[in-house]
Design goal:
By secondary structure, the chain is α+β, with helices and mostly antiparallel strands. It contains 4 helices and 28 strands. It has helices at 2-15, 340-368, 379-394, 397-414; strands at 30-31, 33-34, 37-38, 49-53, 62-66, 72-77, 86-91, 93-94, 97-98, 112-114, 123-126, 135-137, 153-154, 170-175, 184-189, 194-197, 213-214, 217-218, 224-225, 236-239, 248-252, 258-261, 276-279, 290-295, 304-311, 320-332, 425-429, 432-435. Strands 1, 24, 25, 26, 27 and 28 form a 6-stranded mixed β-sheet that branches. Strands 4-5-6-7 form a 4-stranded antiparallel β-sheet, with no helix packed on it. Strand 15 (184-189) and strand 16 form a beta hairpin. Helix 1 (2-15) crosses helix 2 (340-368) and helix 2 runs antiparallel to helix 4 (397-414). The longest helix is centred in the last third of the chain and has 29 residues, at 340-368. The protein binds calcium ion (4 copies). Residues 312-314, 316, 318, 320, 437 line the site of one calcium ion.
């Protein structure tokens, strides 16, 4: 048993998903704070969708964060341009109530601002969940501190048809894609598609083309595909990441990574390279960030379903990233006298248990799909069949051995818990991570 435990520890050391760090181009990510606390959209189901914009037009960029409620939390910058400090004001208002989009699965609201009618006030756009309509909240001239917007309408094309991809969720961004002086609409969907709707109107009256220009890449098996973002969830943004004068495309992903598609076309006709991960997915290949072990009061860790905002946060000339995320965690409460070493040990055990649980669930579902099933079956009959087959399967020797190992693990974990019999709680989390970029090594501005 001792040998097995040693082996297990070696595996756990090597396999920790949190060992995956952002590429050397970033400093370690830090979660943004407001009013002295880390911003966490857990009370609204997580899925943070960040955006920096000067809401109250006092010359300082404020922070707007979407989440699973479909609303938009507004944090005013009460610090300075070079050293922002945020304080929660409340939800952005639209037409007398909280601005809101429809969301019931998998994503957060995704605020982005731009002046679509040239009246000098910023309008807000946001995606939502199924159908992935893109909503426009016109800006108003009421310069108070509530960030007032007018009643939302779906963004329509020149024929009055709502702009959207086939995928369930949508993420919009506004950018002058073709360098003709007006804002175009770039939008991604949950299947990883990204498309452009050119503004065929003007900078004072945006009209979006009915033709979609899709971003396409050649995938690993040589097929041309428009599903460009690995694992889908194309939460798009644009910015000249490599400072070559051509705006590049960036996107979040279901896996929590951030991808860069370098523009190798021209200013008027962008063309993109295949996506490269500039923030690697925070999870190891196994597991997708759901029900990962978390420690109550522990240090936050980047999750999945990244929604991004590209901005030169520290104004050093190099674009940085804000990354909103989601994590459904299994939260454990540890003993109050626990040491750092014990905490690390507990994290390793809990992670191993998480993976073993996932493996067991996957193994049964692999087995279950091979079973012969009747054509017509009621949901009750299906449940009974499933339960009976699972019970049978769990009595087989490999599953019995796994169950014994899990019991052993649980015993090991119990010594670190506040109450040994406590059942862990499930918690939603959603942070806003600042990935400050280090200027490239060959850049004279790099300081380390
Ligand atoms: Ca401001
Ligand atoms: Ca344009
Ligand atoms: Ca570029
Ligand atoms: Ca910067």
């Amino acid at each position: 048993m001792k040998l097995r435990r040693l082996l297990l520890q070696a595996v756990l050391w090597l396999g920790s998903p949190w060992m995956a760090t952002a590429d050397d181009q970033f400093h370690a990510p830090v979660p943004l704070q407001a009013d002295g606390k880390v911003i966490n959209t857990s009370d609204n189901g997580g899925h943070s969708g960040p955006c920096l914009v000067d809401v109250d037009q006092d010359g300082l960029r404020d922070l707007v964060v979407g989440d699973f409620s479909g609303k938009f939390r507004y944090f005013r910058n009460v610090g300075s341009a070079s050293s922002p400090e945020y304080s929660l004001v409340g939800y952005l208002q639209a037409d007398g109530s909280d601005a809101e989009v429809n969301i019931y699965c998998c994503v957060g609201s995704s605020p982005f601002f731009g002046d679509l009618n040239g009246d000098g006030t910023l309008d807000m756009v946001s995606g939502c969940y199924s159908p992935g309509t893109i909503w426009k909240f016109p800006g108003t001239n009421e310069r108070d501190h509530s960030g007032r917007l007018a009643k939302p309408t779906p963004i329509l094309d020149k024929h009055g048809v709502a702009v959207r991809h086939p995928g369930a969720a949508s993420w919009p961004s506004l950018f002058d894609w073709d360098a003709d002086g007006d804002l175009d609409l770039i939008h991604g969907d949950s299947e990883g598609r990204i498309g452009l709707r050119a503004n065929i109107g003007s900078s004072t009256a945006a009209v979006f083309d009915s033709q979609e220009t899709m971003i396409e890449i050649t995938n690993e098996i040589g097929q041309l595909t428009d599903h460009v973002i690995p694992k889908g969830h194309a939460a798009v943004a644009m910015g000249d990441w490599d400072r070559d004068g051509l705006p590049d495309l960036l996107s979040g992903s279901y896996n929590g990574g951030v991808y860069l598609l370098r523009n190798i076309g021209t200013l008027q006709k962008p063309h993109f390279q295949e996506p490269e991960a500039i923030v690697p997915p925070p999870m190891a290949a196994k597991g997708h960030g759901l029900l990962l072990p978390r420690i109550e009061g522990g240090t936050p860790k980047p999750g999945i379903r990244s929604q991004i905002f590209v901005v030169d946060y520290d104004q050093d000339g190099w674009l940085d990233l804000l990354v909103g995320d989601y994590m459904l965690g299994t939260q454990y409460t540890l003993r109050s006298d626990i040491t750092e070493t014990e905490t690390a040990e507990f994290e390793r055990l809990a992670l191993h248990k998480h993976r073993a649980d996932l493996d067991a669930a996957q193994a049964f579902s692999n087995h279950f799909i091979t079973l012969p099933k009747r054509d017509s079956i009621t949901p009750e009959e299906f449940r009974a069949f499933y339960t009976q087959e699972k019970a049978k399967w769990e009595k087989e020797p490999p599953q019995v051995r796994t169950a014994e190992e899990l019991t052993e693990l649980q015993k090991d974990m119990a010594q670190y818990l506040k109450c040994k019999d406590d059942k862990p709680k499930q918690v939603d989390e959603g942070y806003v991570w600042l990935y400050l970029r280090k200027p490239p090594i060959d850049s004279p501005s790099r300081t380390e």
